[in-house]
Specification:
globular; 6 helices; two-stranded antiparallel ribbon; alpha+beta; two-stranded parallel sheet; about 180 residues
């Protein structure tokens, strides 16, 4: 999938993605930082870049900024918890919103504006609380009738036009100490 570095099809059976590709040093360092991020917490692309600049490493500080971290994640991020590296404003990665959202919910990552997100199952669309959505006749939004996400962009049919954001004040991890998952 675009943007997540999925490499599941790379390599022979049982070898996994890492065995199929020799990673550049910078990519290995980025992925190493991502693996440190505890479940339920996130770092921004810029946070990862800053971490690498401050890191004690035999080859010195890593060159690069948020865009270079994003490129590494796009190419190789499928082998690590890619959903834990996010945009600074907390919006979900376009094209991977629903996959990331499932991970955030599994890990208890703090979200904003998530109460109206619809999930589609065999019984049709439902809100997180299990209420049936009224697609067509009325709208079930659960957030004061807002039909658009906090970013002003719609989330698409699978989410009923709603898409939460990461609550960056509560979810952001600075790399220090024991993880304090809310």
């Amino acid at each position: 999938m675009k943007g997540t570095g999925d490499t599941d099809s790379a390599g022979a059976a049982g070898d996994g993605p890492a065995a199929a590709v020799e990673l550049p040093d910078y990519a290995e360092r980025v992925l190493g930082v991502v693996e440190l991020i505890p479940p339920g917490r996130v770092m921004t692309y810029g946070d990862v870049a800053e971490w690498l600049k401050d890191e004690e490493h035999p080859q010195g500080p890593a060159p690069g900024g948020p865009r270079q971290v994003g490129r590494v994640m796009a190419l190789y991020g499928g082998a690590v918890p890619w959903w834990r590296v996010v945009r600074a404003d907390g919006t979900l990665l376009p094209g991977s919103e629903l996959r990331a959202l499932a991970h955030y919910r599994d890990e208890g990552t703090p979200l904003r504006g998530a109460s109206a997100v619809l999930t589609e199952g065999a019984a049709g669309p439902r809100t997180e609380s299990g209420e049936a959505s009224t697609r067509g006749g009325g709208r079930a939004t659960g957030s004061g009738g807002a039909a658009r996400s906090a970013s002003g962009r719609g989330g698409g049919r699978a989410t009923g036009g709603q898409m939460p954001r990461i609550d960056m004040r509560r979810a952001r991890w600075d790399g220090g100490g024991a993880p304090d998952v809310p």
